[in-house]
Amino acid sequence: LEKMTDLVAVWEVALSDGVHKIEFEHGTTSGKRVVYVDGKEEIRKEWMFKLVGKETFTVGAAKTKATINIDAVSGFAYEYTLEINGKSLKKYMENRSKTTNTWVLSLGGTDYRVVLEKDTMDVWCNGQKMETAGEFVEDGTETHFSVGDHSCCIKAVSSGKRKEGIIHTLIVNDREIPEAVE
């Protein structure tokens, strides 16, 4: 395995199926462009006359669209920006925090990352979409699923305030799990 000598940018992108590492190599003399997602080569272009431009590829189980923009700043300096679904990474992550809840927990020595997609009520755990069962309860809804032999439940309860909307709480083995900030 050749050493990544032209590595110019590394990003971490948190999606429902996990946190993905995107690495970008740019040979500013040869114009070489290589994109790695989670260590796997996605794109390789050896010779490019145009040193600026963009590379588009997909990330994760849901094949989320990602684009690396290569812009000349001055002389031989370049700027690399990552867009996810057409939004800057920062904007995408801000929006994502409104549409998803994420919890990180350890059960029996194994780490789990549980993500709730609020618009679809899909639940992901360590990259797998979970089988869930939803039920209406007195004060809201409960979405039940299992992680190993642990029963889990995401409770959705109205905050009573319009601006806050619905509050989602993950309960595992009768214990409330604090939400993670990504």
List the helices and strands and how they pair.
Layout (H helix, E strand, L loop, with lengths): L6 E9 L2 E9 L6 E5 L2 E6 L7 E7 L4 E11 L2 E8 L2 E2 H11 E8 L2 E8 L4 E4 L2 E2 L3 E5 L2 E8 L2 E9 L7 E7 L2 E3 L5
Antiparallel strand pairs: 1-2, 2-3, 3-4, 5-6, 6-7, 7-8, 9-10, 10-11, 11-12, 13-14, 14-15, 15-16, 16-17
Question: How would you describe the overall organization of this protein?
Answer:
With 182 residues, this protein is mainly beta. The protein folds into two domains: 80 residues, Beta Barrel (Lipocalin), CATH 2.40.128.180; 78 residues, Lipocalin. The chain is 6% helix and 61% strand. It contains one helix and 17 strands. Strand 2 and strand 3 form a beta hairpin. The two termini are 32 Å apart.
Q: What brief labels describe this structure?
A:
182 residues, mainly beta, Lipocalin, 1 helix, 2 domains
**Most strands sheet:** 5 strands, antiparallel
Helix and strand string, N-terminal first? EEEEEEEEHEEEEEEEEE
Order of strands across the widest beta sheet? 13-14-15-16-17
Helix percent band: under 10%
- Poorly predicted regions are none
Function: Plays a role as an inducible effector molecule that mediates Fas resistance produced by surface Ig engagement in B cells.
Protein name: Fas apoptotic inhibitory molecule 1
InterPro entries: FAIM1, FAIM1_dom_sf
Main location: cytoplasm
